[in-house]
Amino acid sequence: MPNRSTLALAIIAVITSLTHTALAAGPTKDNSPPNWPQFRGSQASGISDGNPLPADFDVAAGKNIAWKIDTPGLGFSSPVIWGDQIFLTTAVRRDGSTDDVKVGLYGQIQPASDGDTEYEWKLLCLSAADGKTRWDKTCHSGKPAIQRHTKASHANCTPATDGKHVLAFFGSEGLHCFDMDGKKLWSKNFGTLDSGFYMVPSAQWGFGSSPVIHDGKVIIVCDVQKDSFLACLDIKTGKEIWRTPRDEVPTWSSPTVADCNGKPIIIVNGYKHAGAYEFETGKSLWKIGVGGDIPVPTPIVAHGLTYITNAHGMFAPMYAVKLDAKGDLSPINGGAKIHEDMAWAEMAGGAYMQTPLVYGDYLYSCRDNGVLTCWEAKTGKQMYKQRLAGGRTGFTASAVAGDGKLYYTSEEGSIFTIKAGPEFEQLAESTAGDVCMATPAICDGVIYIRTQKGLVAVKK
Predict the structure, then answer these.
(1) What is the pLDDT of residues 317-354, one digit of tens each?
(2) What CATH architecture does domain 4-459 belong to?
(3) Which of 48, 94, 200, 241 could form a disulfide linkage to 232, CB 3.0–4.6 angstroms apart?
């Protein structure tokens, strides 16, 4: 029989493991299954543990497929889940035609030519059990205020929910709040939000930053061609609580709310100003001014650090920053010297499109060309670098993880299952049978994969 000290340590280890699993999977409601309330789940972690997940699946053959549905229009936002409800956004052409999407590794910057088309911007509520539509609400109708990228849609922002409210953000077409039954509560318009290429203003790419709900507040980042800002709104009314101007070029990154010594802070990506802000006031706490000039990945939090990456232009940094940092943390001499409040930094290891992932002791980041790098999350020691798919396809969707597995989704619809750990091991390659630009969601043992034409529920 173990002695009391050994038994106590074992109990503590089990409790710690269960707590980590619950936090990673997101909050629960009335003992319901874990939820996936925003882009990449709780704190954008991308993790949902506690249930077995399949290593492989096949949509065409029905292997490990719970259900598959078609969805209207085109939307590259991710699904979010609360209990037995799934929420999706989409933009539907009024004439019944479909939007074209061009995938692959290319450098074309001119937008898609559908700016004169009439659309309906919609929020859908689906049943998690079978994918059937519960309600369908039109948030806005008309022509798009700005054009979209050829890899984007007019519905890129992932919804957010707290179990009482559901937010759908469409950039220039407004922020819209509903209750869980589809009743419209409020809408707010912020004018034209153009987050296209800052060096070529005619290259309009749509809007992609998703909202976050925390403690009855809505946090949004609107980094655009003119008058960028970070704002906090009241979830019940949509009333603006504070707005902080940002000297920033257009970005596509979403904010993250993290706990720092018992107080919430907001962490954002950026080219001129990646950094942290006070949750209550919007006051800047720390900033980094050296990075890629079109930031897309969302900051993530683990081990008392936040990981910020981007990769376009002169630099492709991966920063591991202490949450309680202060002041200007910008590296000196191209990263030759880093600030003491950075645990580590690598100036040429960042990702352009994908939000990274920390699973256990390791940080994983995949570039849009499929090069996957694994580091020790606390130290920055590189464990491996491996190319997925042999360079034959692009990767835009961010990774998700659970049950000891990492899932990387290519634009052409191949999903690569990688064993979590310090050594590279590919467990399987599966196919969704359609273009995949949206980041999957995992909830209660089900992987929800949004394709260009629909939604697939994958379950072991």
Answers:
(1) 999 999 999 999 999 887 789 999 999 999 999 999 99
(2) 7 Propeller (2.130)
(3) 241
d(C-alpha 152, C-alpha 198), whole Å: 17
Place of tokens 């107080």: 263
Task: Name the residue among 39, 37, 15, 14 with its Cα closest to residue 26.
Answer: 37
Name the residue ranges covered by the structural domains of the chain: 4-459
Q: Which residue in 147, 149, 206, 87 sits closest to 450, CA to CA?
A: 87
Contact 363, 382 (CB under 8 A): no
Q: Cα(351)–Cα(328) distance, rounded to whole angstroms? A: 23
Q: Are 15 and 7 in contact, with CB atoms under 8 Å apart?
A: no
Structure tokens at 121: 């911007």
This prediction has a pTM of 0.92
Q: Is the CB of residue 146 less than 8 Å from the CB of residue 196? A: yes
42/19 Cα distance (integer angstroms)? 13
Give the separation between CA 372 and CA 225, rounded to whole angstroms: 32
Task: Please write the tens of the pLDDT for every residue from 380-433.
Answer: 999 999 999 987 899 999 999 999 999 999 999 999 999 999 999 999 999 999
Lookup: tokens for 397: 């969707």
Distance CA 137, CA 168 (A): 10
Token pair for residue 60?
């065409």
If phi > 0 it is left, if psi is from -120 to 50 it is alpha, else beta; for residue 238 that is left
d(CA 100, CA 416): 25
Closest by CA position to 173, among listed 153, 151, 199, 155: 155
237 band by pLDDT with thresholds 50, 70 and 90: very high
Angstrom distance (rounded) from CA 66 to CA 59? 10
State the DSSP H helix or E strand holding residue 159, giving kind and residue range, or none if neither: none
Distance CA 66, CA 297 (A): 30
**Tokens matching residue 67:** 């259900």
CA 157, 191, 108 angle in degrees (round to 5)?
55
Q: Are the CB atoms for 448 and 412 separated by under 8 Å?
A: no
